[in-house]
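Input for the complex:
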Amino acid sequence: MEEYINTLKKRLTIWKLLLLFSVAGIGIFFIFGSVLFGMDVELRRAFGAMFGFLFIFSLCYFVTDSTTLGSDNKLREQYIRNIDERNLSIEAKSSRVTLNIVMICLFISFIVMSLFIGNNAGTVPGICFYGIWLIKSAVKYYYNKKM
Amino acid sequence: MKNRIQELRKSRKVTQQELADALSVTRQTIISLENGKYNASLVLAHKTAQYFGLPIEELFIFDGEDENIDVIANLMNKSLLD
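Predicted:
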């Protein structure tokens, strides 16, 4: 439990830093972007959306983690949810299935784009597919040696 | 893998939440275990057996289902290699 409390405290620091970073980003790029870097409206909006998303994301997690740390019941509930082996197993299985679906989609788009659009068009999904496959093989090799 | 968790829990008048708290898992995990939708890990099986004061083999009944899956997988691998 102590370890989990420390993790939450560390996470709170990260959320605070991200909040500062996103506010600074919104200020620099969205509000003063045209003055400082001569950005057009479209680019400023794109940066604003990006940092705005980061701000909302960090704020949500900051509030959630602060609330969890503030209440003993919520802390215990959240801790159990985090170490629950069924939840961990679901998480691992869904990650595995997601990875397989992403790889299949990339492979199909590589084939389709190479055949119907042109050799160069299929390069990006092809590189992504082989990159993911290589990383997966390397991670598998690492755990094979470790276990 | 079948188990007697529900039977023992009811006979001892323990709620799913109480059992979940004692084993440090969520209530959903207890529900899934009782319904046979999820097989407990060795650690959780030990904890559960300790909680009920019984040996693991009296709580979890191995029905050979997993063994059959392994046998099928081995046969398939063998036929592929042949």
